[in-house]
Amino acid sequence: MKTSQKSKEIIERDKKVVSPSLTRPYEFVVDHAEGSTIFDIDGNAYVDFAASVAVMNIGYNCKKVKEAVCTQMEKMVHCGFSDFYSEIPVKLSEKLSQMTGYEKVFLSNSGAESVEAAQKLAFWYTKRCGMIAFYRAFHGRTLGALSLTSSKIKHKEHFPSLRVVHSHYAYCYRCPLNLEYPQCGISCAQEIERTIFKRELSPKDTAAIVVEPIQGEGGFIVPPPEFHKEVRRICDENDLLLIADEVQSGGFRTGKFMAMENFDVRADVVCMSKSIGGGIPLGATLSSSEIMSWPPGAHANTFGGNLLAAAGGLATLEFMEDKKLGEKAVEKGNYLMGRLNELKEKYPIIGDVRGIGLMIGVELVKANKDPAVEERETIVKKALEGGLILLPAGDSVIRFVPPLIIKRNEIDRGLEIFENALKAG
Ligand SMILES: Cc1ncc(COP(=O)(O)O)c(C=O)c1O
Fold it and tell me: Where are the beta strands (DSSP E) in 181-265?
């Protein structure tokens, strides 16, 4: 599928007026979507293995969410929820609280905002202003969240930072300490105590450790089972808060509503966004009543709790539960992972296949195990030409994060196109 004249014209107009800071991996102009298929403006259909960056877990054009948003639109679009009371954002907060066990919810509009709220809450609660995050982490691009982000130098160049020190994540395929799991004893996590607390940032000045349960933008990196437990232990022994950024991994993507549940670890503060709005901008920061006890004015916003997002979010969460999307993520994820592992046996360029549920990354490598950066770009583009949407992550990873409602025959079709792209790449 080649870029048509119609697409080219829109891209030209986009280039004239839209901020060039956006990162488009290829020239693809969308028109509409249904289920797990996106149609471009020329009517070509594409199997979607990216779910608009793990947002469309419920699939596109979900009738239940559409009806909920339209019904709310007829009644009232917006009320300043930081000034007035309204039932629908309360219902959404109750639902999130019931699904997670956290008592208090702060509503916002995006992932970065949910992270910023968590940061401010941790600063406020502990009265300390340092934080620890991880190499390859991505937490967003507003200045607070950006301080935690470490995935790419270009994300951070020329921008000032809060006081954040980065430590090693458990990237076992390329262990930063050159050790082997499990003999390593999760040494990467202990770097925080061994080095950071002694040389960089005292625990007395540290408000929180912020961690993605599975690193997303950094390369779909799944830590071994003990990693988050070690990080939790370090937080407990040093009286720090643990903030879990579930913006990409949450919403049943890994089978559980929160990916941290796979590791049997409970964070003190949780950030959610992306999939919980079903495509409508929605963010939520969750915590206990004890921690989220800040006074009026400490944090608020204009659009958090806006009625359309609240109606869409509530319908999304109900749909996720009704349709057992967690079970679907596990079942389809096992199938997809198995098929990708078969491809790994056939194509040496596939160095690693890893993931939980339908949050899967495929790391492409050269013969010497260096990241296959250019090859990844070619394969992603070839896949698009064949009718499959893939998005990159990390240095040479392709993410496989389709809508959780994807059907087995759609997975098969996508994999056929992926294999053709591998052959051509
Ligand atoms: C883990 C994580 N946190 C935060 C963000 C930022 O979310 P947003 O782009 O909605 O600000 C992202 C976005 O990809 C993310 O993956």
Answer: 206-211, 241-245
